[in-house]
Amino acid sequence: MSIIKNIKEIIYYRHVISGLVTTDLKVRYRRSFLGFLWNLINPLLNLTVMAVVFSQVLQIKMEYFAIYVFTGMLPYQFFSSSVAVGSKALVTYEQYIKKLTAPKIIFPLALVIANFVDFILAFLAFFVLVLLIHPAFGMPMLFLPVACLIMFTATLGFALICSVVHVYFRDFQNILAVILQAGFFSVPIIYTYESIPEESKLRELLYYNPMHHYLTLFRDTLFGVGDPLELKFPGTTTMLTTSIGAVLLLSIGISVFYKYQKDIIYRL
Predict the structure, then answer these.
(1) Which residue, 7, 101, 155, 179, has most beta carbons within 10 Å?
(2) Rounded to whole angstroms, how far apart are CA atoms 90 and 53?
(3) How many domains in the chain?
(4) Helix, strand, coil: what percent of the chain each, to 5?
(5) 34 has pLDDT over 70
(6) DSSP of 98-124
């Protein structure tokens, strides 16, 4: 089955996907007094805590360091949480998969979309805060929707691959948690790329870490570079590598998923 045909099949079941996403979001906030408002309040609370910790406790001199951290943390949290829940999707929805004739790919897809909704809400709240306290403002901010789309595409592709692996190897979930935790520290989220000595091999390894470039899409357009800070569009190399990488990762994810989907039912 071609990838184009797979995509058409997914679009055909869009109403089922919509129902799964809505249900998942309702379950998440069912007993929460503030519900979806937490997505708007959390960035404000976390940004306040980080501003105090980094400026007063750790005495980090970098201006607007809390904003710097958040521009990397929010995208990575979306990636890690989506991959974590997406990898368990087939096991989580085992009963539905055995009863429904809908394509199995809609289950990890729905969970990633639900996480993406949370991410967008949190990012919008953070964006408003940035506009209020960050001195840099400019046209590069218009690139943010594209950056979010690229991040979503790459995340979905990786989540699809992990969902298949988890069916065949149940211990994979524990290994994945360690990998995602290590991934958080392997990219400049709570430290800067420039803080690594130029002669260090870690700096070179970091440059070849794909996640570093995906976070750069957000850093350049929302936090800025230079002194004083100035927003800029991501470089051509960064945009091409992340875009092509995301499309390739999604294509591989869809191909792997459909290759093993007939056997999945017997492994659940």
Answers:
(1) 155
(2) 40
(3) 1
(4) 75, 0, 20
(5) no
(6) HH--S-TTHHHHHHHHHHHHHHHHHHH
- Which residue would you say has higher pLDDT here, 217 or 25? 217
What would the two tokens of residue 8 be? 């058409």
Token pair of 56 as six digits: 């007063």
For residues 170 and 92, is the Cβ–Cβ distance under 8 A? Answer: no
The range of the structural domain enclosing residue 189 comes to 3-267
Amino acid at site 58: L
Please report where in the chains the tokens 């007094």 appear, as a residue. 33
Of the candidates 138, 22, 129, the one whose C-alpha atom is nearest the C-alpha of residue 71 is 129
Q: How far apart are CA 181 and CA 249, in angstroms?
A: 21
Whether the CB-CB separation of 9 and 260 falls below 8 Å is answered with: no
pTM for the full model? 0.87
CA of residue 252 relative to chain centroid, distance = 18
